Each structure stands twice: as structure tokens, then as C-alpha cells.
């Protein structure tokens, strides 16, 4: 389990409704992969921008791409349009 900074914990609390199925006492310790997946899939534009500012474009891209490569089932957790959009976005904005 990852240790979270107060800033990341606050970000998760602000978007806790996106993690509806995770018990309240476990939300602050979700993995980076789950955090990125849910914010990119279900967050609004402000949440996405805040995530990119929090993790940086490069780290967010690496987490996103790693999750897509873990398994077809994990890749299937992303909406098809989300994958398409962020593949283009990261190709343009990440190194």
C-alpha cells in the first residue's frame, strides 16, 4: 500500500464520489493506477487538470500506459474514447 501525501489525500477526498465502491477508510490509499483511471474516465475537466498538475504529465502518462499494458481486462476498464483522447494528448504533451 502506498503512503499518500496530504495533498494527494485531499485530492482523493475532493473526488471521493468517483470511488463509490471503495470503503471510506480505504479511499485515501488507493493505488496511483486506480486514481488515474477513475479521474481520466469519470472526472470533469478540472479534476483532470488538477491530476496532471499533481502528478505531472509524464508520470500520469506512464501510469496510464502501464495500466493499458497490464492486461486486456485492466485496459478494458478505460472507456474507448478516453483511451483515444489521452493517447493523443500524451503523444503531444509528454516527452
Task: Please describe the topology of this protein.
Layout: H1 6-14, H2 32-42, H3 45-55, H4 57-70, H5 72-75, H6 80-93
Helix pairs in contact: 2-4, 3-4, 4-6
Notable traits:
66% helix, globular, mainly alpha, 95 residues
In short:
The protein is mainly α and 95 residues long. The chain contains 6 helices and no strands.
Question: What do these coordinates show?
Answer:
This protein has helices at 6-14, 32-42, 45-55, 57-70, 72-75, 80-93. With 95 residues, the chain is mainly alpha-helical. The protein has a domain at 31-93. Helix 4 crosses helix 6 (80-93). The model has no long low-confidence stretch (mean pLDDT 92).
Q: What is the residue-averaged pLDDT?
A: 92
What is the string of helix and strand elements? HHHHHH
Given the structure, what is the number of helices? 6
Described by strand count, sense and barrel closure, the largest sheet is: none
Unreliable residue runs: none
- Strand composition percent: under 5%
Structural class: mainly alpha
Helix content: 55-70%
- The Cα radius of gyration reads 13 Å
Quantity of strands, as a count: 0
Shape assignment = globular
Amino acid at each position: 500500500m502506498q503512503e499518500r501525501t496530504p495533498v494527494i489525500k485531499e485530492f482523493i477526498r475532493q473526488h471521493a464520489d468517483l470511488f463509490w465502491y471503495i470503503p471510506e477508510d480505504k479511499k485515501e490509499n488507493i493505488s496511483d493506477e486506480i486514481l488515474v483511471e477513475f479521474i481520466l474516465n469519470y472526472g470533469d475537466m478540472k479534476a483532470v487538470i488538477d491530476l496532471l498538475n499533481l502528478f505531472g504529465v509524464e508520470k500520469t502518462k506512464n501510469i496510464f500506459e502501464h495500466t493499458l499494458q497490464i492486461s486486456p481486462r485492466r485496459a478494458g476498464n478505460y472507456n474507448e474514447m478516453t483511451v483515444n483522447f489521452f493517447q493523443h494528448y500524451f503523444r503531444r504533451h509528454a516527452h
